[in-house]
Write the C-alpha coordinates for this entry.
Amino acid sequence: MNTPIRKLLVLALAASLSAAAPVLSFAQAPAAAPAPATMQGSPSELVLENTRRVLETIEARRSEFAADRAALQRFVSGEFETMFDRDYAARQVLGRHGRGASDADIKAFGDALADNLMRRYGSSLIDFNTRLQVRIKSETALPRGLGVKVSSELVRQGGEPIPVDYLMRRAGSGWRVFDVMVEGVSFVQTFRQQFDAELQRKSIAQVTQQLRSGQLAVDASTD
Protein backbone atom coordinates (compact mmCIF):
# COMPACT_ATOMS: atom_id res chain seq x y z
CA MET A 1 0.00 0.00 0.00
CA ASN A 2 1.61 3.28 -1.06
CA THR A 3 2.04 6.19 1.34
CA PRO A 4 -0.80 8.52 0.17
CA ILE A 5 -3.36 5.69 0.13
CA ARG A 6 -2.16 4.42 3.49
CA LYS A 7 -2.53 7.85 5.06
CA LEU A 8 -6.00 8.26 3.56
CA LEU A 9 -7.11 4.88 4.89
CA VAL A 10 -5.65 5.40 8.34
CA LEU A 11 -7.30 8.81 8.57
CA ALA A 12 -10.72 7.32 7.94
CA LEU A 13 -10.00 4.58 10.45
CA ALA A 14 -8.60 6.95 13.04
CA ALA A 15 -11.57 9.29 12.77
CA SER A 16 -14.09 6.51 13.31
CA LEU A 17 -11.96 4.72 15.89
CA SER A 18 -11.88 7.91 17.94
CA ALA A 19 -15.50 7.33 18.88
CA ALA A 20 -17.34 5.32 21.46
CA ALA A 21 -20.94 5.74 20.37
CA PRO A 22 -23.12 2.63 20.12
CA VAL A 23 -22.93 0.86 16.77
CA LEU A 24 -25.92 1.91 14.66
CA SER A 25 -28.24 -0.97 13.77
CA PHE A 26 -29.87 -1.59 10.39
CA ALA A 27 -32.18 -4.34 9.19
CA GLN A 28 -29.36 -6.26 7.49
CA ALA A 29 -26.85 -5.74 10.29
CA PRO A 30 -25.73 -8.57 12.55
CA ALA A 31 -26.25 -8.03 16.25
CA ALA A 32 -23.42 -6.12 17.90
CA ALA A 33 -22.67 -5.44 21.54
CA PRO A 34 -23.35 -1.78 22.39
CA ALA A 35 -20.53 0.47 23.48
CA PRO A 36 -20.54 1.86 27.04
CA ALA A 37 -23.03 4.68 27.54
CA THR A 38 -20.36 6.77 29.29
CA MET A 39 -16.73 7.24 28.34
CA GLN A 40 -15.38 5.69 31.52
CA GLY A 41 -12.28 3.56 31.86
CA SER A 42 -8.70 4.42 31.12
CA PRO A 43 -7.86 6.14 27.80
CA SER A 44 -5.89 3.07 26.69
CA GLU A 45 -8.83 0.77 27.43
CA LEU A 46 -11.18 3.00 25.44
CA VAL A 47 -8.88 3.13 22.41
CA LEU A 48 -8.33 -0.64 22.46
CA GLU A 49 -11.99 -1.59 22.91
CA ASN A 50 -13.32 0.94 20.39
CA THR A 51 -10.73 0.08 17.76
CA ARG A 52 -11.45 -3.62 17.98
CA ARG A 53 -15.20 -3.05 17.87
CA VAL A 54 -15.11 -0.75 14.84
CA LEU A 55 -12.73 -2.98 12.87
CA GLU A 56 -14.85 -6.07 13.60
CA THR A 57 -18.05 -4.26 12.62
CA ILE A 58 -16.58 -3.06 9.34
CA GLU A 59 -15.48 -6.57 8.43
CA ALA A 60 -18.83 -8.10 9.45
CA ARG A 61 -20.79 -5.56 7.40
CA ARG A 62 -18.36 -5.12 4.49
CA SER A 63 -20.74 -6.40 1.79
CA GLU A 64 -23.62 -4.28 3.15
CA PHE A 65 -21.49 -1.14 3.32
CA ALA A 66 -20.02 -1.77 -0.15
CA ALA A 67 -23.54 -1.87 -1.62
CA ASP A 68 -24.92 0.98 0.50
CA ARG A 69 -22.46 3.82 0.98
CA ALA A 70 -25.13 5.87 2.75
CA ALA A 71 -25.28 3.21 5.47
CA LEU A 72 -21.50 3.36 5.72
CA GLN A 73 -21.69 7.13 6.06
CA ARG A 74 -24.26 6.85 8.85
CA PHE A 75 -22.12 4.29 10.65
CA VAL A 76 -18.92 6.33 10.41
CA SER A 77 -20.69 9.56 11.41
CA GLY A 78 -22.30 7.85 14.39
CA GLU A 79 -18.98 6.44 15.50
CA PHE A 80 -17.36 9.85 15.20
CA GLU A 81 -20.02 11.61 17.24
CA THR A 82 -19.60 10.82 20.91
CA MET A 83 -15.95 10.61 21.87
CA PHE A 84 -14.37 13.11 19.49
CA ASP A 85 -14.28 16.58 21.07
CA ARG A 86 -15.33 18.57 18.00
CA ASP A 87 -15.48 21.99 19.64
CA TYR A 88 -12.11 21.74 21.36
CA ALA A 89 -10.49 20.30 18.22
CA ALA A 90 -12.07 23.08 16.15
CA ARG A 91 -10.54 25.71 18.40
CA GLN A 92 -7.15 24.02 17.99
CA VAL A 93 -7.54 24.02 14.19
CA LEU A 94 -8.64 27.67 14.12
CA GLY A 95 -5.75 28.74 16.36
CA ARG A 96 -5.39 32.53 16.48
CA HIS A 97 -8.36 32.92 14.11
CA GLY A 98 -10.65 31.52 16.78
CA ARG A 99 -9.77 34.05 19.46
CA GLY A 100 -12.90 35.94 20.41
CA ALA A 101 -15.10 33.77 18.20
CA SER A 102 -18.51 32.82 19.55
CA ASP A 103 -19.25 29.30 20.76
CA ALA A 104 -21.85 29.02 18.00
CA ASP A 105 -19.29 29.83 15.29
CA ILE A 106 -16.80 27.35 16.76
CA LYS A 107 -19.43 24.59 16.92
CA ALA A 108 -20.62 25.23 13.37
CA PHE A 109 -17.03 25.13 12.05
CA GLY A 110 -16.29 21.91 13.97
CA ASP A 111 -19.44 20.23 12.65
CA ALA A 112 -18.73 21.29 9.07
CA LEU A 113 -15.11 20.14 9.32
CA ALA A 114 -16.11 16.72 10.66
CA ASP A 115 -18.86 16.24 8.08
CA ASN A 116 -16.52 17.24 5.24
CA LEU A 117 -13.90 14.84 6.56
CA MET A 118 -16.32 11.93 6.68
CA ARG A 119 -17.77 12.63 3.24
CA ARG A 120 -14.34 12.66 1.68
CA TYR A 121 -12.68 9.73 3.44
CA GLY A 122 -15.42 7.50 4.83
CA SER A 123 -15.53 5.21 1.78
CA SER A 124 -11.85 4.42 2.23
CA LEU A 125 -12.86 1.99 4.95
CA ILE A 126 -14.48 -0.23 2.34
CA ASP A 127 -12.31 0.51 -0.67
CA PHE A 128 -9.21 -0.87 1.04
CA ASN A 129 -8.57 -3.95 3.15
CA THR A 130 -9.10 -3.16 6.84
CA ARG A 131 -8.18 -6.53 8.28
CA LEU A 132 -5.99 -4.93 10.87
CA GLN A 133 -5.24 -5.53 14.52
CA VAL A 134 -4.57 -2.90 17.13
CA ARG A 135 -1.79 -2.90 19.68
CA ILE A 136 -1.49 -0.38 22.52
CA LYS A 137 2.10 0.71 23.10
CA SER A 138 1.92 3.27 25.88
CA GLU A 139 -0.10 5.91 27.70
CA THR A 140 1.73 9.07 28.73
CA ALA A 141 0.74 12.40 30.27
CA LEU A 142 0.74 15.48 28.05
CA PRO A 143 2.59 18.61 29.20
CA ARG A 144 0.84 21.19 31.40
CA GLY A 145 -1.87 18.73 32.42
CA LEU A 146 -3.55 18.90 29.00
CA GLY A 147 -4.47 15.21 29.04
CA VAL A 148 -2.83 12.01 27.83
CA LYS A 149 -1.40 10.52 24.66
CA VAL A 150 -2.31 6.92 23.88
CA SER A 151 0.23 5.47 21.45
CA SER A 152 -1.03 2.55 19.39
CA GLU A 153 -0.14 0.60 16.26
CA LEU A 154 -2.32 -0.81 13.52
CA VAL A 155 -0.73 -4.15 12.69
CA ARG A 156 -1.21 -5.49 9.15
CA GLN A 157 -0.03 -8.61 7.40
CA GLY A 158 2.93 -8.17 5.09
CA GLY A 159 3.71 -4.61 6.13
CA GLU A 160 5.19 -2.46 8.84
CA PRO A 161 2.88 -1.45 11.72
CA ILE A 162 1.26 1.97 11.31
CA PRO A 163 1.67 4.18 14.41
CA VAL A 164 -1.47 6.03 15.47
CA ASP A 165 -1.48 8.28 18.55
CA TYR A 166 -4.61 9.67 20.19
CA LEU A 167 -4.48 12.89 22.22
CA MET A 168 -7.24 12.82 24.82
CA ARG A 169 -8.55 15.18 27.49
CA ARG A 170 -10.87 14.88 30.45
CA ALA A 171 -14.52 15.63 29.73
CA GLY A 172 -16.73 15.20 32.76
CA SER A 173 -16.17 11.71 34.15
CA GLY A 174 -14.59 10.35 30.97
CA TRP A 175 -12.21 11.06 28.11
CA ARG A 176 -12.54 12.56 24.63
CA VAL A 177 -10.15 12.65 21.69
CA PHE A 178 -9.10 16.07 20.36
CA ASP A 179 -6.31 15.13 17.96
CA VAL A 180 -5.03 12.09 16.07
CA MET A 181 -1.43 11.66 14.96
CA VAL A 182 -0.60 9.16 12.20
CA GLU A 183 3.09 8.43 11.71
CA GLY A 184 3.83 11.50 13.84
CA VAL A 185 1.68 13.88 11.77
CA SER A 186 -1.01 15.75 13.71
CA PHE A 187 -4.29 16.23 11.87
CA VAL A 188 -5.07 19.34 13.93
CA GLN A 189 -1.80 20.91 12.79
CA THR A 190 -2.39 19.75 9.20
CA PHE A 191 -5.85 21.30 9.05
CA ARG A 192 -4.64 24.50 10.78
CA GLN A 193 -2.07 24.99 8.02
CA GLN A 194 -4.62 24.24 5.30
CA PHE A 195 -7.20 26.75 6.52
CA ASP A 196 -4.86 29.53 7.64
CA ALA A 197 -4.83 31.35 4.29
CA GLU A 198 -8.62 31.16 3.91
CA LEU A 199 -9.18 32.42 7.45
CA GLN A 200 -6.89 35.37 6.88
CA ARG A 201 -9.25 36.55 4.12
CA LYS A 202 -12.64 35.30 5.29
CA SER A 203 -14.70 34.97 8.44
CA ILE A 204 -15.13 31.67 10.26
CA ALA A 205 -18.77 31.65 9.12
CA GLN A 206 -17.75 32.03 5.47
CA VAL A 207 -15.21 29.21 5.67
CA THR A 208 -17.79 27.06 7.45
CA GLN A 209 -20.29 27.61 4.64
CA GLN A 210 -17.67 26.70 2.03
CA LEU A 211 -16.92 23.48 3.89
CA ARG A 212 -20.62 22.62 4.00
CA SER A 213 -21.13 23.34 0.30
CA GLY A 214 -18.02 21.45 -0.78
CA GLN A 215 -16.24 24.54 -2.11
CA LEU A 216 -13.52 23.75 0.42
CA ALA A 217 -12.40 20.22 1.29
CA VAL A 218 -10.09 18.84 3.93
CA ASP A 219 -6.93 17.19 2.64
CA ALA A 220 -5.53 14.87 5.28
CA SER A 221 -3.00 13.33 2.92
CA THR A 222 -0.87 16.47 2.91
CA ASP A 223 2.73 15.69 3.87
Notes: The radius of gyration is 17 Å. Confidence is low (pLDDT under 50) at residues 19-39. The chain has one domain: 3-213.
